[in-house]
Design brief:
Anti-sigma factor; Znf_put; 109 residues; single chain; Anit_sigma_mycothiol_RsrA; 5 helices; mainly alpha
């Protein structure tokens, strides 16, 4: 998405790091650049507003549930892998070995 206008901070950079901005997980210097970009770029500002609304809705609707400790650890572990640029396994690496299940035909059930 881009408004087609030149900006000091490119639209793609803003959108790639939008959640870091929303979650206040970036340095103040970068936050200031993003704020400036939003004042200049209405498509990015609209996307920001939409994502902020979704985040608030999820927090309001799901913010009361306690996350199981093991699930939290798994998610944080995967995020660390992604941030470090490592490949993320498709299966649950914290679980024991997967035991194959033989298919049951309709006649056997």
């Amino acid at each position: 998405m881009s408004c087609g206008e030149p900006h000091e901070t490119d639209c793609s950079e803003v959108l790639d790091h939008l959640y870091e901005f929303l979650d206040s997980e970036m340095p103040d210097v970068d936050r200031d650049k993003f704020k400036q970009h939003f004042t200049e770029c209405s498509p990015c500002l609209e996307k920001y507003g939409l994502e902020e609304a979704v985040k608030k809705l999820v927090k309001r609707c799901c913010g009361h549930d306690d996350v199981p400790t093991d699930l939290r650890a798994k998610v944080l572990g995967r995020l660390d892998l992604i941030r470090s640029g490592q490949a993320v396994p498709e299966h649950d690496v914290t679980a024991g070995p997967v035991t194959p299940v033989s298919p049951v035909s309709p006649q056997e059930s």
